[in-house]
Structures are given as structure tokens and as C-alpha cells.
Hints:
globular
Amino acid sequence: MKHEKFLTRNAPSAYAAKLRAGHFRRGTGVIGSLLATAVAQAIAPAAWAAGTDRTVLPLAEPKRPTYTEIDARKAKMPPRFEVKAPAGAPNVVIILIDDLGFGAPSTFGGPIKTEAFDRLAQNGLRYNNFHTTAVSSPTRAALKSGRNHQTVNMAFITEMATGFPGATGQVPDSTAPLAEMLRLNGYSTAAFGKWHETAAWEISISGPFDRWPTRQGFDKFYGFFGGETNQWAPLIYDGITQVELPNDPNYHFMTDMTEKARAWIKHQKAMTPDKPAFVYFAPGATHAPHHVPKEWIDKWKGKFDQGWDKIREETLARQIAAGVVPPGTKLAPKPPAIKDWDKLSDDQRRLFTRQAEVFAAYTEYTDHEVGRLLKAFEEVGQADNTLVFYIAGDNGTSGEGGENGMYSEMTYFNGVQEKVEDMLKFVDKWGGPETYPHMAAGWAVAFDAPFAWMKQVASDFGGTRNGMVVSWPKGIKARNEVRTQFSHVIDVAPTVLQAAGLPEPKVVNGVKQIPIEGKSLGYSFDDGKAKERHTTQYFEMAGNRAIYHEGWFARTIHRAPWESKPRRTLQDDSAWELYDVRSDFSLVNDLAARNPKKLAELQQLYLKEAGKYHVLPMDDRVFERLDGAAVGRPDLMRGRTSITLSDGMTGMMEAVFPNVKNRSKTLTAEIVVPEGGGNGTLIAQGGRFGGWSLYVKDGVPAYAYNFLGLQRSS
């Protein structure tokens, strides 16, 4: 039948086989509709002018013809204008795990089993010299734009934006994201999971919506906006609409987002099998809170009893054996604040091993869900022409847990140090809905092996070097090989454009574009010995800063994640170090004293790059930046002392509600109590792990205050 030929010619092989086997009804329903579509396309076939300039997006429609013919049946119909991706353009999947260090996944020699990551590596390339920015929002904005994080105004996380250029937290129109470039070139686009790129004061019904995912190039968005969310009870959006969660005691967002992504892929391929798809898949894992189903935790019981020092040694041995670090690599010395495992108390070791078990379970569970996502492309017969970037971390493993870790991560942002004896009360519930946990910083060093530092420390590879695997069966001949060329997160976007056969756009939506600052990795796909093309790269995060240039690395450690104040002024250059990373993979041999001339040269280069890319002036404040009024950030509530709420105003982010922290407040409510009393919440800010609530119990109004989940009063 003609409509069968149409479908089998255009559909992926798996779907075509089902059609030939009679799995779909013919002549009615979906098949009938597709037959009608086939006929319509035969009458008005899609047209594409080969010479169309794709550097200006969106593509301009051709001039509309005029007619003198009266009868349409006698007139020649013009070809239908349709934007299509270049022939053979691959599907693209970017997977970005959160807060996972270089030395954590088994794919790069770590102790945590990541089977999906391993499978992808066996069919692709491991990049062992790939770098991020050391923190979430900056990495994400740089990844999706191909520009440095200060170029896209993301000097730190969106909640800590300031009024300075480079730090406003508002991605400019002159740096269109990859998703928009692909969408305007004929791709279907979807994002799932963590976003964390929209300015915090713009996340409300009042918008503006320009920097929401669905205005940043994504047709579909299903996920959350902040840096983290409760994985058992997340605040999530579908597009711009808040989602009401199912009443399911087994609900977990990681599985939910995977199901939504798989469904979208299959639906998109059923409707338009020849149209390539771009999927951005960014789990909240393994950022705190470390929330994971108990059956995954149980598998890791006792696997970390040897402690973080021994784990580091075992990891390095595996890394050398696997060829993901050079022979002779040494473990960089731990920061002095990280105690030796054998000097800890029994209670500390009991708590800390449980923390690592939960983190490992969270990592393995997340990787399992990534595997299910990728399987969707196999199931529609398009795995071979799917280009996958699996990036194991938007920065190094987080050390924000400090010396002991945390039962409630909210204590970190409030400067409260939790005690081991208090956390041990929750040890058997760690990772479940009754905790909001983070782990001790010693594990961050272990899972960032062989490096010394971690997340936030942009001046050490423990903060910026993340394992990445690239797989594209149809486009990359090499299999299971390691690539050692220096690369950076800004290199991903130009790599995708090259693979898709698309030029870098010069104008997008009428706005002249800042040129992409990354370099395509395409040159390294089939040549492991190719000379690296990304030869200079600055790093900066809250004063932690460094510069890479042609194999040399100069840096200064300005502040540790658990330190509330920097170690010295930004003008003080006395603590800079110098490394030759061509022979010193883990930054062990400081050459500053032996080669002061090279160090001075690199310090000057850093300042030059910092000026060029809007890094200056640097800002080493951290928690002070949470106060928008103090740093010149827009605030919807500035100057207001009251707000009148109405029904349905739920899920409001903290930045679009009056700041009542450490301030007296008055709550006024008109309450109608039905006969027989009543119960319910009138207004609540926060929840189980900190906040306050005005509620009615047995017909009587009441107020409760929850101090970080540690103390409650009412």
C-alpha cells in the first residue's frame, strides 16, 4: 500500500518493522492521517535553497509571489518554505551531571559503578583534560552558549548576581544559546532537569520570560529552576506552568524526568523521524540533597569503610591502569582542613561512611536513569546517528558539607555547623525524605582524585576538571580511546555546530552575536595525537583564579568552600603557584620559585584575559551576595513592606517574596472557620528543613517557626 511505503521509507527501522508486521492499523486513525500528510507533501513538497545563508537566524522566508491567474487549478503552486536541518545532521544529547568529580565514576577510575557511562566510553572517547567553571550556573550558561561564563553574565550562581557587567545573572541576547541555534535550523529541542540559568528575580508569573528555557531555544522544558530541589517533593515546571506532583509515595524526580524525556523522544521520532532532536538532560543529582531510593543505598553498605584516604589511593591506581591519568601521577596533598581518616573518631567514621554510601548510590542510580534515556534512541532506531556528550559534573564534587557534612543542607547557607552526635540520630534515614543531606568535605577530595580541591575552587583541577565521554557511532570511527587535548565546556557548542554541518550564526533574532569563544573538538575525534586548539583559558570564581596557556598553569587559592572569608585581598599576588601540566597532571610540583619569569608572564596574561572577558572587577564576596540590595541586583520587592496574596500563589521562589529573614513581620488573614472546626495551612515559606507557617489546627489559628530543621517553636 502507498501509505505503508511512505512510512517505511521515512520511519526509523524499528518502527518500520512493526508496521510491516501489522502492529498498526491501516487506513484509519494515525495511519490515515499520515497518508493524508503524504499526499499533501506530494502536492506541495518541501523546498530548500542550497545557497541560503544560515549565519542569519531565523532564516528569511522567500519573497511571496503574486499571481494574475484567476483559477488556482491553472496556476503553478510555489514550493513550500520549510526550514530543515542539513541532511544527515545527528541527534544531539548533552548529559550534564551535577557536583560529580573526576575521580568518582568508574569510567574514570573511580569507586562508583557507572555502567551507562562505561558503555558509552567503550563505544566512544574519554576526554581526560576537559574543564568546567567550578560552579553550576556559570558552567551551564557557558556550555549552552559556547562563550565564557562572564561573557554571558554568569560570574557566579544566579542567586548571587550583582550589578556589574559579567555578573548580572542575565544571559544577553547577543549570546544566543545552542538550543536556539539548532531550533532555528530545523531541530526539535527539549530540556529536562536542572536549569539554574534564569535570573532569580525573573522567576514569577510576571516574568519576563525571555530567559526561561522555552524562550532560550527549547520547545519543551520539564524541570526545576534553582540550584537544587527536594528530589522527593520537587518544585518543577512544565514549560512555564508549575506541575502538581502525583500522590505517589515512591515518587522521585530522577525517574520522573527520565520518563518525561523518553516519552518526548519517542513522540518526536514518531511524528517526525527525519527531524533531528536536541536533548539537554541535566539531573539534579548528585548535588545535595543526596536523595536516593533505599534499595540503591543498600547495595553500597560497607563499600567505603576504608575511608577517604584509602579510596584516593585505590582510585589513582585504577586511573593509571585504565590510562585516564599518566603513569607516575601522584596524589595532590589534601587541604590541611581535611583530617586523616585514621585520626577520626568511631562516630565520625560511622557517619561519614554512611554519607559516602548514599552519595555513591545516588550516582549509580542517576547513571542508570541516563542509560534508560539513551536507550530511547536505540528503541527508535537512531542510536548510530546520535551525538552524545556525557559530562560527569558541572564542577568538582562539592565540599560545601564542611568538616562533618549536614543532615540539612540549609545549615550551610546560614553558617551553622552541625554536630556529629546530632546527625547520627538520622544515620539510618540518610538519603530518605526525612533528610536533606550533604557529605563531609573529605569525600569531595576523594571523589576528585587525584586532585586536591573541589567545587568552587576554580584554581584547581579538582574544581574544574570533569570526565567527559563523547560518542557518535556514525560520525566517530575511534572506539574506547582517550583524548588528552586541553578542552573546556565552551568547546561543546561549536563541536555540535560542526557535527551538524551548521555555521556559527552572526545574527540571531535580529541581534548581532558575540563570536563563540570555544573551539570545536571535531579535530580530535579521529586523531588522538592532534595538536590541541584551545591553548589559553582563564578560570575565576569568587577570587579563586588561574590561567592555562600552552601547557602551563598559574593559580592562586583564594578561599575554600567552607571558609566564610577569603584568605587575602584580591590585590595580594603573594600566593600564586606555577605548574607545568604537561608533566604534572595533578598539580603537585609548584615551580613558582624556580621560574618566576614564567609566573609573572602568566599573571599578566590572566589580567589581560580577565579584562577581555568581563572578569574585572573580581568579587570575592559569597554569602554577602545573597542580599540583592547590597550588590545592586534587581529586586521585585525592593521598597515594599507588604504583599497581598491570593489563592493559587504557590511555588513562589524566595527571590520574588518579601525578605523576612531576621526581621519582624505581621501576617494578616481573614479566616472563616466552618462548624466543627477546621485544619489546614494558610501560608508557608519553606518546609521540613527550615521555614515558617501560619495554619489552622482544630479551628484555631497557629504559627510555627522551623530553624533549619534543628529546632521548632510554635
